[in-house]
């Protein structure tokens, strides 16, 4: 039986994959107030554990990008999901910083591949006007996972213990895996795609302006360094709110674990909305005749200029106002990130999208690793205030870097 609008069912699977990815990733952050006390972990040790995830995540970005191009999105995504789901379940066996670090490293090795595969699917299944929407849904799935994780994991941990929380969240990936293997295939091979949708997907598209093949050629392009540098500078903001927000609310703002579980999802919901809004906004501009690059940057500009609001989070005495400001910051960040991610699809040919996405995302992991270590040092020795000040200027710096390296490229 043919399925109308099959590509949006594929998008739903990508949304679910990134949602599961972030529930598994966020589970440690949610139970951190309990786990760090039970295992006697200091803030520096906790930051070190997070770094094991980020180091593995960063290194395997490049490897997993190549895997996606070499073995295809269907097989590679299945392997990534099975790997990180099993690794997340293994957290239940942790007995201290060393074992927890190993399990976080294994989790990072698998989780990075999910987004490389998703970006390539956007090139395989969608015309240019839809790609930012799809990447927005992938980012929205990540934010949705961060929304669901606090209440879900808090409930699992309080009812059954923090170890069971890892087992339950990890098991969800294997359920998703069944649906993926049943539904996903390349459009030209899919037996359930309609002729009309296949024609839409295969319609002639603008020639990708970057014609590089292979890692050395990709690294020789200024576009690669512009996108890598922008991810390096801006993505630490997301890593901070993903890994440190629950601890910040409990330790600095005085929230109880229950209050944190009830309220911590709000900023991630706003990030969810920002992901979708950013994709829809640039897609609408492209439909009006704007060049893809110009449309993406037009949406990213106001997002970057609003990020200094992060400083006000540290200055306000009101916890309610702090939550509201964080919501605005994460909305803007994810609208920015959706369009920055989609520029990979705009600039590079389909054959190398996985590889170049891995190179560019290396900047994400590297920036996150360095900033997470800095955050641990600043929090332990001083306070969170300086961290919020630094985050206020990262996106404007990234925008300036892109302006210098990309100049007036509007292809």
Task: Please characterize this protein's 3D structure.
81% of the residues lie in helices and 0% in strands. Helix 2 (43-71) packs antiparallel against helix 3 (73-90) and helix 14 packs antiparallel against helix 16. The two termini are 39 Å apart. It is mainly α. It has helices at residues 6-38, 43-71, 73-90, 97-125, 128-160, 162-183, 195-201, 215-219, 222-234, 236-243, 245-251, 257-263, 265-287, 292-306, 310-315, 319-347, 353-381, 385-391, 394-406. It is built from 19 helices and no strands. The model has no long low-confidence stretch (mean pLDDT 85).
Low-confidence segments? none
Q: Which class do the helix and strand fractions yield?
A: mainly alpha
The end-to-end span amounts to 39 Å
How does the major sheet shape up?
Answer: none
Count of discrete alpha- or pi-helical segments spanning 4 or more residues: 19
Cα gyration radius (Å): 20 Å
Average pLDDT works out at 85
Helix content: over 70%
Give a nutshell description of this structure:
The chain is mainly α. It is 81% helix and 0% strand.
Secondary-structure blueprint:
Blueprint (H helix, E strand, L loop, with lengths): L5 H33 L4 H29 L1 H18 L6 H29 L2 H33 L1 H22 L11 H7 L13 H5 L2 H13 L1 H8 L1 H7 L5 H7 L1 H23 L4 H15 L3 H6 L3 H29 L5 H29 L3 H7 L2 H13 L5
List keywords for this structure.
81% helix; mainly alpha; single chain; 0% strand; 19 helices; 411 residues
